[in-house]
Automatic annotation (TrEMBL):
<dbReference type="GO" id="GO:0005794">
    <property type="term" value="C:Golgi apparatus"/>
</dbReference>
<protein>
    <submittedName>
        <fullName>Uncharacterized protein</fullName>
    </submittedName>
</protein>
<dbReference type="GO" id="GO:0060090">
    <property type="term" value="F:molecular adaptor activity"/>
</dbReference>
<dbReference type="GO" id="GO:1903358">
    <property type="term" value="P:regulation of Golgi organization"/>
</dbReference>
<dbReference type="GO" id="GO:0005813">
    <property type="term" value="C:centrosome"/>
</dbReference>
<dbReference type="InterPro" id="IPR052593">
    <property type="entry name" value="MT-associated_AKAP9-binding"/>
</dbReference>
<dbReference type="GO" id="GO:0090063">
    <property type="term" value="P:positive regulation of microtubule nucleation"/>
</dbReference>
<dbReference type="GO" id="GO:0007098">
    <property type="term" value="P:centrosome cycle"/>
</dbReference>
Amino acid sequence: MEPKPSRELRELVSRVASLEAQLKSSRLEGKGGVVEEGKCATWPGKYNTLIQAQARELSHLRQRMREGRGVCHILTQHLGDTTKGFEELLRANDIDYYMGQSFREQLAQSTALAQRMGTKISGRDRAELHDDKMGHELLALRWVLCPNDV
């Protein structure tokens, strides 16, 4: 079961999509020709400040998305390192097999969640991310399935 994105994230993604659509349509209208410019002589003065404000907001939202992707990447790396650390502890100490298995599963789920969150924020599909950073998830799954082989 995949967790639902937060309301703020959904609003952010929706707002970015809306602004990109507005920007694309305004560019298409701009290519409409001289007739469009002749019809609305006040267009540059009337809408210029609105366009600039939307461009600033779009830049700000893109920056927030870049920061979110960076945080997800760092979180994924941290969870991978934490998983390795726990795995070393579990091997070094004679801990109950089922308790160790529970730790492994929780860490694998946390890593998968961080990767899904990064996927949602970046807007890229799983196929693109598969080539990117699948090492942590595969390693975590190997630990869950075959803890003695890793």
